[in-house]
Amino acid sequence: MVVLFSNTGMAQDSSMIRKHPPKTNIWDKVYFGGNLGLQFGSSTFIEISPLVGYRITDKFSAGVGVTYQYYHYRDMYFNLETNVFGGRMFGRYLFTDYLFGHGEYEYLNLEAFDFFPSRRVDVVSILGGVGYIQRFGSNSAIVGMILYNFTESAYTPYQNPIIRIGVNIGL
Asked: How confident is the model over 119-137, as pLDDT tens digits?
């Protein structure tokens, strides 16, 4: 007579266990922000530039924005008034928790006053620079940037360097 005893043990190899990535809500990576500019007097300037961005990784985000600018200048010789419309695509890379690089493609349609009657022109700009982000909540921050327009032209509505200060609010 033969008696067999068997002892079967089970062990799980950690490489065999399927790990599911943590479920994240897509809206946790979305943020809104932009710039608001106001100037009044003999020169009136109003800018509204909202943006929406998406955090692709912890360090890199990209997004889009629209721009509207109103400009009115009056003195004893001139009375100029114009509207500027446009949009932009951007990317940001965080070097540290506070410093980031910013690249942007911007398209603007504006009125050129070099011929009479005036005409509308399209202005394309490639902007790049660095920025500083100061967080004041879990998903909110004040953002400051110094940008350089690498394609500055006679019709570009601003001069180098370009300084922007705005607010980002995440969901």
From this structure: 899 999 999 999 999 988 7
Instruction: Specify the CATH number for the domain of residue 63.
Output: 2.40.160
Domain count, the chain: 1
Domain that holds residue 81: 29-165
Coil, helix or strand at residue 6:
coil
pTM of this structure: 0.75
Selection from 14, 47, 52 nearest residue 31 by Cα: 52
Domain membership flag for residue 94 = yes
Of residues 61 and 117, more confidently modeled:
61
Please tell me the distance from the alpha carbon of residue 135 to that of residue 152, in angstroms, as a whole number.
Answer: 32
Tokens 């493609």 correspond to 105
d(CA 21, CA 148): 40
Q: Per the domain annotation, does 38 fall within a domain?
A: yes
